[in-house]
Specification:
The complex is a heterodimer of chains A (105) and B (167). Chain A is mainly alpha-helical. Chain A has one domain. The radius of gyration of chain A is 13 Å and the shape is globular. In chain A, 34% of the residues are buried. By secondary structure, chain B is of the alpha/beta class. Chain B has a single domain, classed as Hypothetical Protein Ychn, Chain: A (3-Layer(aba) Sandwich), CATH 3.40.1260. In chain B, helix 1 packs parallel to helix 4. Classes of the chains: A mainly alpha (105), B alpha/beta (167). The interface between A and B is medium-sized, with 18 and 19 residues.
Chain lengths: 105, 167
């Protein structure tokens, strides 16, 4: 398992750059990962989605799908794609320190 | 991030409930992965964007060799639904309800809602001019999000460099 340093902490990542241990994640790491994904600043609207994904993954063991997020976090599809442009499925999961979402919807 | 964005285009030519989903599922996955999505609806595929039809798509058991009795909860292995049964009144409606129920159980949204999700996610939808003319339809007949009625040649122009999937 590869490791890398993010925000001064050493974390485990897989070959696609997703963190493999959600417990190693913290908010400073999220800020750094967001920058790597082209999001310069995480607003409260971003955090609401990230927090939802963390909670959902803690319960189910997997990152939620986009449809899970829109329904569960109460955010519209348009807003979700605006907050995490060009590929929200992977971006949200990666910033939240989770694996790729499992499921097709 | 560095290279030009990947593009994918679907041509939807079928109007049955089962054939409505492939482009929706793959298109949604593509959007989620940051890929540009264009969908061209032609022939029976226009039913998917026709306001009067989209909520009434059906699946018929007749001549559908993949549809087995076991799907109706009868544990009979590979025994198919006999075509003679399929022709009975109500069988198509029954099969359709069965499929809709199964999809709902998986939290898969109905076609109209799914299309709206794709539009909200940035997918571009177009109707085929030749079929629209043949069927006597107008732009007002289509759900919101259908951008235009275009020719096959327009479609070729707008999908330059895209991967094209015919359904």
């Amino acid at each position: 398992m590869a490791t890398r340093e993010i925000a001064g902490k050493t974390v485990e990542v897989n070959e696609e750059g997703f963190m493999t241990d959600p417990n190693q994640w913290d908010k400073e790491i999220a800020v750094e990962l967001a920058k790597e994904e082209g999001i310069p600043e995480l607003t409260p609207a971003h955090w609401k989605i990230i927090e939802y994904c963390r909670q959902s993954a803690a319960k189910t063991g997997a990152a939620p799908t986009l449809r899970n997020i829109t329904v569960g976090a109460g955010v519209s599809t348009k807003d979700l794609f605006a907050l995490f442009p060009k590929g929200p499925a992977k971006k949200v999961a990666r910033i939240a320190g989770l694996g790729k979402p499992e499921g097709c919807v | 991030m560095t290279e030009e964005n990947r593009k994918i285009a679907f041509i939807c030519s079928k109007g049955t409930l089962d054939m409505a989903y492939p482009a929706l599922v793959m298109g949604w996955a593509a959007l989620g992965n940051g890929i540009d999505v264009t969908i061209f609806f032609t022939f029976w595929g226009l039913d998917l964007i026709n306001k009067a039809r989209v909520d009434h798509l059906e699946i018929a058991p007749v001549a559908n060799t993949s549809m087995k009795m076991s799907m109706m909860g009868v544990n009979t292995g590979n025994l198919g639904i006999p075509n003679i049964m399929g022709i009975l009144p109500g069988m198509t409606a029954f099969a359709t309800k069965l499929m809709k129920d199964k999809m709902a159980k998986l939290d898969v949204p109905p076609v109209r809602e799914y299309l709206q999700m794709l539009v909200d996610g940035g997918a571009k939808l177009y109707a085929c001019k030749m079929t629209v003319d043949m069927m006597g339809l107008k732009k007002e007949d289509f759900v919101d999000g259908v951008l235009d009625i275009v020719t096959a040649s327009d479609f070729m122009d707008m999908t330059e460099g895209a991967q094209i999937i015919f359904i």
